[in-house]
Design a protein that fits this description.
Length: about 190
């Protein structure tokens, strides 16, 4: 797998410099007893942060890379965290989101070849009122993945609205934007 030997140190450095953790936690507005899946959890930074801040919640860290899932498991063990489950799975194979009140993507959605399928599956299977949160690189940012794979805010909004979700909040950082969508009532 291409993610098995991914070096998360550069990602960590960039995230720590440019994406304030507390602002992300506040923006997601997770509640205790909630169930969140961190799609492409990487080194588990957000999964662990949500788990520690909301100890009665259930966090699923979906990470297909062996290096990332190993880092998450090591941190869970060393910090004796009880509410994080590691799921070694490709995000494109997940078709049912009904067990999650929040689906969280941080700088991974642009990498997924199955974005349309994921958006459709979330819109069809998540309960009304559930949230989907994205952190993505701005198209014009000087750092990040190749500009041709980045997702414009308007493109992300159109995709989510076409799949039963409504934009309920947005925020900006120097190189990134955050969007929060609420899954609409079924019609």
């Amino acid at each position: 797998m291409e993610w098995d030997n991914f070096d998360y140190s550069r990602t960590k450095e960039m995230r720590d410099r440019f994406i304030p953790l507390e602002k992300v936690i506040d923006f997601v507005s997770l509640e205790n007893n909630a169930s969140l899946i961190d799609m492409g959890a990487g080194d588990g930074h957000y999964s662990i942060a949500f788990a520690l801040k909301f100890p009665d919640s259930h966090i699923t860290a979906l990470e297909p890379g062996l290096n990332g899932s190993k880092l998450i498991r090591e941190r869970i063990k060393s910090e004796k965290i009880q509410n994080v489950e590691v799921l070694e799975k490709d995000a494109c194979t997940l078709k049912d989101y009904s067990n999650y009140g929040v689906v969280f993507f941080s700088n991974v959605f642009h990498d997924l070849p199955c974005r349309d399928g994921i958006a459709a599956a979330m819109g069809k299977t998540m309960r009304p009122g559930s949230k989907v949160v994205f952190i993505e690189f701005k198209k014009e940012a000087d750092i990040g993945p190749p500009k041709e794979i980045r997702i414009e805010e308007s493109t992300l909004k159109a995709l989510m609205e076409a799949n039963n979700a409504k934009l309920s909040g947005s925020a900006e950082f120097k190189y990134h934007y955050m969007h929060k969508y609420i899954i609409n009532q079924k019609t």
